[in-house]
Amino acid sequence: FDSKPYKLNNAIDIEKVKKILTKYDVILPKKRNYYIETNYSHYVHAHHQEPLDKTREIIQASYPQYLVKYDEVMKRSKAHMFNMFIMKRDVFESYCSFIFGVLGKLEKQVDLTGYSVQEKRVYGYISELLMDVWLETNAFKYTELKWGQLGGKNNVRKAVSLVERKIGIKTKTHF
Fold first, then answer.
1. Picking from 102-106, 127-131, 138-142, 168-172, which range would have the lowest pLDDT averaged per residue?
2. pTM to 2 decimals?
3. Residue 145: what are its φ and ψ, rounded to 5°?
4. Residue 157 domain-assigned (yes or no)
5. Residues 175/158, Cβ–Cβ less than 8 Å
6. Residue 92 covered by a domain
């Protein structure tokens, strides 16, 4: 009798990770597709717009080599989300240098006064969108794996919330 509400028999093991990393620099979950929205419009319908716009300004001023990919990623409907990845060490150091450089500057420019507890997670949300910007600018080789979620997804509530946001009704957006 298994008392856990989930099974981990589909989790990737270290030997498989090592084998994959002989061919690729990064292992990521499959991209999320927003279908009817771009990454930018999805973000601003669900979160405060100012931090994302300031992120672009920071990239333009301090990391201009990333600006073309930033604009491309914002116009797409797909992205590697969830801040889940496995990377080679040197690749991870490159990622950290970029991501924390941008977020460190952003933190100095954004006033979180009045943000909900959920919205104070802004740097995590922004970092999700920066993954593909960093990855593609540096042309790292990556592969995608199917990922799973423990617990319920609450898809009906998410769909209702999406429609409400599209017509301008502000509601709880995260579950």
1. 168-172
2. 0.82
3. -125, 150
4. no
5. yes
6. yes
Smallest CA-to-CA distance from 93 within 132, 134, 129, 123 is with: 134
Report if residue 172 sits inside a domain: no
Query: 66 in a domain, yes or no?
Result: yes
88 by DSSP, 3-state: which? coil
pLDDT tens string 108-162: 999 999 999 999 999 999 999 999 999 999 999 999 998 876 665 565 565 555 5
C-alpha 85/C-alpha 146 separation (Å) is 12
Task: Report the distance separating Cα 148 and Cα 8, nearest Å.
Answer: 10
Domain that holds residue 104: 14-150
Determine phi and psi for 43, rounding to 5 degrees.
-60, -50
d(CA 66, CA 101): 13
Domain count, the chain: 1
Cα–Cα distance measured from residue 117 to residue 65, given in angstroms and rounded to the nearest whole number: 33
Tokens of 132: 């593909």
pLDDT digits (tens, 9 = 90+) for 48-67: 999 999 999 999 999 999 99
Which long-range contacts (C-beta less than 8 Å, at least 24 apart) are formed by 135-141? 135/26, 135/80, 136/69, 136/72, 136/73, 137/65, 137/66, 137/68, 137/69, 138/94, 140/25, 140/26, 140/91, 140/94, 141/23, 141/24, 141/25, 141/26
pLDDT digits (tens, 9 = 90+) for 16-38: 999 999 999 999 999 999 999 99
